[in-house]
Amino acid sequence: xxxxxxxxxxLALLGAVxxxxxxxxxxxxxxxxxxxxxxxxxxxxxxxxxxxKMAIATSMATILFTSIASVYAHHQRGAVRxxxxxxxxxxxxxxxxxxxxxxxxxxxxxxxxxxxxxxVTLSATQMFLDKKPxxxxxxxxxxxxxxxxxxxxxxSGLVGAGGGFISVPFMTWCNVAIRHAVATSxxxxxxxxxxxxxxxxxxxxxxxxxxxxxxxYIWLPGLAxxxxxxxxxxxxxxxxxxxxxxxxxxxxxxxxxxxLAGYMFYKAAAGA
Length: 272
What we know:
Largest sheet: 2 strands, antiparallel
Number of helices: 10
Shape: globular
Mean pLDDT: 79
Distance between the termini: 30 Å
Order of helices and strands: HHHHHHHHEEHH
Low-confidence stretches: none
Helix content: over 70%
Number of domains: 1
Oligomer: single chain
């Protein structure tokens, strides 16, 4: 499949922006990739139902690459809480598999767009209000981490994001410093993406009318261009995350998420 130069430029810019946001906010870039890639796939002939699903799956696949670049930059600054990563990862993998290999195939694309919009709006509101957690609250025990990770993996699989839109608010609610939460969320993006991508490929094998160069629900041209560009810019976002004030970080997170949630609500209404 030969990409139109204008389409190639769009994908490259999308990758560059999402890489910066992945490093800056720990959100894996999926919150940006899904709405814009839905638009791009619609323009190349995919139905609304398929465009949303393929955007979600392709977005998740890009996180495999973005998370590595982002977490390396954060790890160099000693910001990743690996103890939290180890505690949440088993539940995350379990929830991701249930979501991507089961629920994802059963739900309509318009329904997934609504789910995306709702959870992004809730996460943005929590960050924008900047409510202070109870001083004594800490991360839960082993069982609590497993179930929290399961919820993060399940919802991430449904909306194609690296989990930062849930894990960052969750960790800050448990009194993890925002910079550590962002860095740790970036590290959690890899197991979330890996488990979900396997599920998307499996559940999309029997789907008809997929665009050319698709592997299951994953659109390979979009994956290649976005991943390449995002890997180059993720370290820039990570450096900015350690230079900006905490309050600025939270409000950037909230504004980006509100705007993209609005687009997905619009897309759901248009495709209903």
